[in-house]
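INFO  loader      accepted 1 record
INFO  loader      residues=301
INFO  predictor   begin
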Amino acid sequence: MKLGTRGSRLARWQAEWVQRALGSHGVTVEIVVIKTRGDAEVDRPLHELEGKGFFTKEIEDALLDERIDVAVHSLKDLPTRLPDGLALAAVPARHDPREALVAPGSSSLLQLPPGARVGTSSLRRMTQVRYRRPDLEVVPLRGNVPTRVRKVAEGDGLDAALLALAGLERLGLSGAGAHPIDPFEVMPAPGQGALGLEIRAADRATRDALRPLEDAASARAVAAERAVLAALGGGCQAPVAAYVGSQESGVGSRLYGRVTALDGVVQLTASAPLDPARSEAAGEAVARLLEAEGAASLLAR
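INFO  predictor   done
INFO  writer      dumping tokens
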């Protein structure tokens, strides 16, 4: 079986994890590295690039052309609408979906000094930081995970950076001044911390081979979160966040969704109980609540 992946350290780690997992079930795997547009165009923030699927399209093209059998994605990068002929075959057990603040000497956004420069490549993170701390300066930060961590450590024009905790922990970088952030302070991207294994929809043999890697609870949670994004019509770079957490009663799960204005002045948050049998329905319900609060006008800006 051939697995297609981006070439960053994190993407390679993820593909190698899938390789080992499949190997334990007797499947021989070859990893094929594919360069994507998002890897090539690093001179601008992602939200300034036109189109969608900056980190997935070239890999999906290889899948459609039968140059690979499985595309290994960070699920938060995968558009909610897949190309005709492709399908999401498995979601392995999800890692911690929270954000992390990489900031020597500060363990939270509230502890950063006024005027501190915070780097991020995500419009969703950018808007939430502006809402929480309008006195901070948010600056674009691209590059792979180790590069972003190094820029903060070396004081390369940055005082802090926001990254996914999952990526830091997978690369052994969570001890580099990284502190998990409460998901209600900065809510993560839909599907953050999860892998998405994409195949040709008609390839039943590959689907069967991937079935042991599926984690039902993780798949339900990310399906609900991605349904929020899909119902709002936003792309992966839209300032839309979603998170499945425990209800205040401690019984069952609840889906939370959030949309934040570009200038950070307005932030809308809504939630709905998550029925394990109807994950997408919870996502659609949260999206409708957000729209009732004015989310469409914020996204249109």
